[in-house]
User: Which sequence fits this backbone?
């Protein structure tokens, strides 16, 4: 059970003291205060943990300071939507708003290689009005003999270049706790010219210690990529690990699941789950068309499969796209075959705005119709 508290209630104020006193009648129940910052208001919730079936909801609802009482209907205590009253307020990081309404494109190379290529990428993004990028410094590779990423040593110049071109957030994968510390250090030393969204890759989707590490800091948001062999339930529980440590600024990313049934694609596209994640949780949802497809093959209509699947995610309401591009994909040190050239990226962005408009039109058409029908029926 979760009690959403009224706006002006203080965590140690008299209203909360009264609620705590009420729960002294239920010795097996523990209370946990959870606070998070939205753009327009901060939200305080009192989480009621333990056997709540005998707790009278109506009495709590009538108590001063209580705005709503939500019975937690699923296991996703922190990230779950639970109830229509739970409006997902999202979060703002470094001036960029993330919620279930937005759409941001994070484009860039799979792996950071040279300062020239990184600078060319940021410059191109700036020209196109994009303030969000992806850049891998720590790469989890299938073979130990493949390029493993430049690691900590590239961070200062990547961040400085990002700042030079007005890039606000870079999605960057971390493989161990030490990488988080290295990112903090580089941001600090360069004077925070940009922001970082810590990426949990599919291979670490159930690395619970790493999940707890990104969850136990609040400065940087987290991009959690679904485990390639995990169910939605398992992946959402993994996100719950992050959130239960205190960091609820999480974006959930679909990136395809491993199955021969996806062939000739690298993975089987799972973007049908975009609305499912939005229904089950309060998290913004990202799609990664690059890793689900794995090549730049196109259909007879001239559009690459990468465009088509990204469109499927966006037309279903995705809030973020993670897409790989490189100034010269043939020379990329990782995932060149699926990386868009800058010209292709420009076309990709145009295509995504067409599809985004279609999504908005769908929502306006059908939600208005449903509201009308409900009004007529009343
Ligand atoms: C990536 O986005 O750089 C990546 C390695 O993706 P995934 O973890 O989905 O394979
Ligand atoms: Mn890649």
Assistant:
């Amino acid at each position: 059970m979760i009690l959403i508290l009224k706006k002006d209630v203080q965590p140690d104020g008299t209203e909360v003291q009264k609620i705590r006193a009420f729960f002294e009648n239920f010795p097996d129940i523990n209370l946990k205060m959870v606070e998070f910052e939205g753009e327009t208001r901060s939200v305080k919730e009192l989480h009621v943990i333990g056997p709540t079936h005998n707790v009278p909801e109506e009495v709590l609802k009538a108590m001063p300071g209580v705005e709503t009482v939500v019975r937690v209907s699923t296991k996703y205590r922190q990230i779950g939507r639970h109830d229509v009253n739970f409006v997902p307020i999202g979060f703002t990081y470094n001036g960029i708003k993330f919620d279930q309404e937005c759409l941001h494109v994070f484009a860039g190379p799979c792996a950071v290689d040279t300062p020239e290529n990184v600078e060319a990428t940021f410059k191109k993004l700036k020209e196109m009005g994009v303030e969000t990028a992806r850049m891998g410094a720590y790469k989890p590779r299938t073979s130990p003999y493949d390029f493993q990423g430049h690691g900590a040593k590239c961070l200062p110049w990547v961040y400085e270049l990002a700042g030079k071109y007005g890039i606000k957030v870079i999605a960057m994968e971390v493989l161990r706790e030490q990488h988080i510390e290295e990112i903090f250090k580089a941001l600090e030393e360069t004077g925070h010219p940009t922001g970082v969204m810590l990426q949990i890759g599919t291979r670490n989707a159930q690395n619970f210690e790493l999940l707890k590490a990104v969850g136990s800091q609040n400065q940087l948001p987290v991009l959690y990529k679904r485990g390639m062999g995990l169910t939605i339930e398992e992946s959402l529980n993994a996100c719950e690990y992050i959130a239960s440590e205190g960091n609820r600024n999480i974006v959930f990313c679909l990136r395809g699941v491993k199955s021969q049934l996806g062939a000739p694609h690298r993975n089987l596209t799972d973007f049908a789950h975009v609305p499912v994640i939005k229904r089950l949780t309060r998290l913004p949802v990202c799609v990664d068309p690059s890793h689900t497809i794995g090549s730049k093959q196109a259909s007879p209509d001239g559009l690459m499969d990468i465009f088509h699947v990204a469109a499927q995610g966006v037309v279903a309401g995705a809030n973020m796209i993670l897409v790989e591009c490189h100034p010269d994909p043939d020379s990329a040190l990782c995932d060149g075959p699926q990386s868009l050239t800058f010209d292709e990226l420009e076309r990709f962005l145009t295509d995504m705005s067409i599809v985004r408009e279609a999504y908005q039109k769908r929502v306006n058409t059908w939600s208005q119709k449903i509201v009308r029908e409900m009004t007529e029926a009343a």
About this structure: The CA atoms of residues 20 and 31 lie 8 Å apart.
